[in-house]
Design a protein that fits this description.
- The relative contact order is 0.12.
- This protein has helices at 3-30, 39-60, 67-89, 97-136.
- The chain is elongated.
- The protein is built from four helices and no strands.
- Helix content is 82%, strand content 0%.
């Protein structure tokens, strides 16, 4: 697999993930689970999303054949990066049971929405390719 085929989806996932976080975060903030957004927090979230993207880039180099295993590994690495950067480095949430559950729930929402977006993008490209093939017959 070419590096370009890994880097572009990684950057795409990074951009989509950051966008989804910036949309979903205020909901959790209004519910009282997170503090309100400020400049420092936005940069910390950006760093977390970029950290996740870098680790997922590395996972992409492993050539995991099973799609289910690949998605599970990507989710696990996302959660680990969120916990390390979010709880340990940036101290965004406490290291308690609740501190583990909120990022897990938030991570699932962001992961699923990013996966759906990437799936629909790939599906659209497949449809375009099939249309080109049909016109050439």
């Amino acid at each position: 697999m070419k590096i370009k085929n890994i880097i572009l989806p990684m950057l795409n996932s990074f951009a989509i993930s950051f966008t989804v976080v910036m949309i979903v975060y205020p909901v959790f903030s209004l519910l009282g689970y997170f503090s309100p957004l400020n400049d420092k927090l936005v940069l910390q979230i950006l760093a977390i999303c970029f950290g996740v993207a870098l680790v997922q880039f590395s996972i992409g180099l492993l050539r995991i054949e099973s799609e289910l295993l690949h998605n599970a590994v990507q989710f696990l690495d996302m959660y680990i990066v969120i916990m390390l950067l979010g709880a340990v480095v940036f101290k965004l949430f406490p290291i308690t049971l609740w501190g583990f559950m909120i990022p897990l729930i938030f991570g699932i929402i962001v992961f699923v929405l990013t996966w759906i977006y990437n799936y629909l993008s790939a599906y659209r490209k497949i449809q375009e390719i099939n249309k080109i093939i049909q016109t050439r017959r």
